[in-house]
# Entry
Amino acid sequence: MAFAAFAVRSGEETRQVQMVCVDDLVPVDDDLRRIEALVDWDHVRETARPFYRAGGAGRHGLDPAVLVKLALVLAWRGLPSMRETLRVGRTDVSIRRFLGFGLTERLPDHSTFSHAQTKRFADSSVFEQLFTAVLRQCTDAGLVGGRRLCVDGTHIEADAALKSLRAELEPIDGDGSVPEACPTSRPALTLAEPRSGPTPKRVASNATAISVTDRDAKLRHKPGHRKHLVHRGQVAVDPKHRVIVAVQSEAATGSEADCLTDLVTRARFAGHRVSEVAADSGYASEASYAALEKLKATALIPPQPGAKHDAAGAARERMRTRAGRDAAVDRQAHAEGAIAELKRHGADRARCRGTRLVQLQLLAAATAINLKRLLDHGYAAQHGQTGDPGARRAARNGQITDLAVRHAAIRVLTRNLIDLLNEIDRLAAADRSTGS
# Structure
């Protein structure tokens, strides 16, 4: 009869006092460890220095690089809040090493990060400069094509409830009566205080109501969906490797096309040439076509079905070309795909109030996504792989053979379909020219 010997664990082993190095506990290929090597954290500290009072009394403040790293961890892991990020970081050695904290050190309180995000860095360029520096690395690595820019927008749920809406107005001073000397003047008005008792039924809109907790949030009601308050986020993507070139937070009112000039300007400031702009018909208007023409960028934007102006006719002709069809595919695959990624990396809902703070949230999420592109590119270069980034990610999971063949087949079939459509257009044009 054979007996197996087991080393019984009583739990007393966890009470041992040992000297360990945190670096030895984190693998060399850990994502956060590789991200730390990609960013110049001394430059981050320099950009944050003007927002700290020099020679102030009291204890030293927290390293600003740690606050920026916390924002990146939240975006990279797609965690719902900073409280949850710090809770996970208490037991996650990878996060502790990335922040520069030992095993027994106490992590910062969430209120410290909240103050930095909503007060200290709210009007700073710290996150903007970090995003630009990472984007420059993507450009230097050859991940940015630099020709076509795919633009799309999404709604980000605001950190405000419907019950914060106020629609009534009341006079600021006195009883609101108009002085006899100035019979045409109007009394100054302000939002009324919430009323007690049952709320009367009424239809609210952005023209008649405003949120007292987040004045930049706007009411949105889509048929079949619940009413809620939102901000609008605009994303500009280079389709070569789906690198995010620019993001912009704005109020969810007016036309989506109002942001095109700002997005193109931001992208060109970051080094992108932007000779073509691809977007859906929600960005189509005579003014948007004129704005892009003034910026010397070709508008690959399908016009509205009923549009009859000259710019709409020219846009229809452009969308029938090979470049127009390719642009439509790029927009659906990369602009909408980047928005889906942003929502998985912390931009699914606003964690702060106000358009400017939502912009910081978008910048952190976009920076995390671009860092992901750099890590994938570094892994591919290290292992001699080229081609589709999705296939490279599959290689890291041991699925390269099946997925690579599948992606190659999809590319070949797509190219054959485009060639077939071009041939149909050529034959149709020949028939029209001969009158047959």
Observations:
- The chain has three domains: 22-49+62-124, 146-159+227-384, 386-436.
- Confidence is low (pLDDT under 50) at residues 176-183, 391-401.
- Residues 22-49+62-124 form one domain.
- The radius of gyration is 27 Å.
